[in-house]
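Exercise 7.
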Amino acid sequence: MNDLLEGFEAWWEAHGQYCRAGGGEYEKTFAFRAWEAATAAECERICTAIKAEDDHCADGDYMLDSDDCIAVAQGKWERPDWNCGTPSNAQVQAGPTAARPGAAQ
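Solution. The predicted structure, written as tokens, is:
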């Protein structure tokens, strides 16, 4: 909670008080609640994204490390393809009746 308060105070001093009519303690209270909600929503978004990628990687017997988690949070993560060299779902579902290259149609 201390980091949240420090982050809010820094934002309020630099920008927030100028965005609110009056910029007093009353306006600061409302701004803090909005800041608190936005911070919680961002934390939830990041945690959900990391969990989804970690679950996906567990299928490939890989566990995300801290650099991977940071990449997920920053939107720079590239999801590994665990189906290398195996047929895709579309190929498996198409089965033997699907047209093959060179087959008569």
